Amino acid sequence: MSSESTEVWTGWYRDRSGAEAIVITADGRRVATRIRGVEYAGESFAALVAAEGSDAALTGCVLEWDLPLPVVVDGAAQQATLACLLTLGERADLSLTLHYGGAAFEACVAGGDFEGALERVRRQLPPGADFGRRLLQAA
């Protein structure tokens, strides 16, 4: 991954064995994280698999992270935070909550479709408001 285009977010991994802090990297095409010494990568959060010699999918866990996502209204960027919660089990369930302007805009989707959930959040914003930057197309 190129450091020029790589985003880094901190978060938490939780499963029945406990919780640990993680770092998620994303370059617009792939996302990756290291959990308990194993590197997981994939084209989407819901498709993370062990990167080294195994196709073992990440499952039976929860990933949680926040990322800054400015909202632009009338040409002025305002701070906002996107809280992300991904449950990986028999299926992937993704919940996004944008905290902006004293309100929370939420979207939950089955299958872990990040762009689909993000679009649902975008449609809830006040008229004339939009995200101040693009996030991962593949996330």
Give a brief rundown of this model.
The chain has one helix at 114-124; strands spanning 7-15, 18-26, 31-35, 38-42, 49-50, 61-68, 71-73, 76-78, 81-88, 92-100, 103-110, 129-131. The chain has 139 residues and is mainly beta.
Describe the structure.
The chain is mainly β and 139 residues long. It is built from 1 helix and 12 strands, in the order E-E-E-E-E-E-E-E-E-E-E-H-E. The protein has one helix at 114-124; strands at 7-15, 18-26, 31-35, 38-42, 49-50, 61-68, 71-73, 76-78, 81-88, 92-100, 103-110, 129-131. A 9-stranded antiparallel beta sheet has the order 5-4-3-2-1-6-9-10-11, covered by helices on one side. It has a 3-stranded antiparallel beta sheet with strand order 8-7-12, with no helix packed on it. It is elongated and about 50 Å long.
Key features?
3-stranded antiparallel beta sheet; 139 residues; 52% strand; 12 strands
